[in-house]
Input
Amino acid sequence: MFTYIVNNDIRLGLLEVRHAEELFALTDQSRESLEKWLPWVAFTRTVQDSKNFIEGTLKQFSENNGFQVGIWYKDELAGVIGLHGINWTNKSTSIGYWLGSSFEGKGLMTKACQAVIQYCFEEYGLHRIEIRAATGNHKSIAIPERLDFTKEGCIREAELLKNGFVDFYVFGLLKSDWKY
Output
């Protein structure tokens, strides 16, 4: 299976069905903070839901349409990062991510994003990567800002969350802008 070593403490790897319980436990433990910004959390109520998600991500990978990988920190599942599909015609993709609440503040997501961006530009030969984040999700917004993405605009009422529609900032990064 696909594994990408970020550093001595962090590795990215394809989620497998055997990770369903661990993934569900992490989601459930972080439910309160995650459901504020991620609509899928409300529909993740059982280990089977996490298993179904993993099966879908393996299909996505096998169809060469991107990937969803677990972020392991010191061999413990800390979160998930992945691509929302790949537009091969335009050589572009967008990245989505989340981290369990007990793993926040360690720089894991910035390092994981750097690795995914590098992989997309070098291995997939992509030209453009986007990150979209709710305007009020300051932790998520900090990632593209740290990685020198350009804030390109705001999409109004782009997603329905628990407490109503939220606006999204769109951040873009071109291969020619990538400095890492």
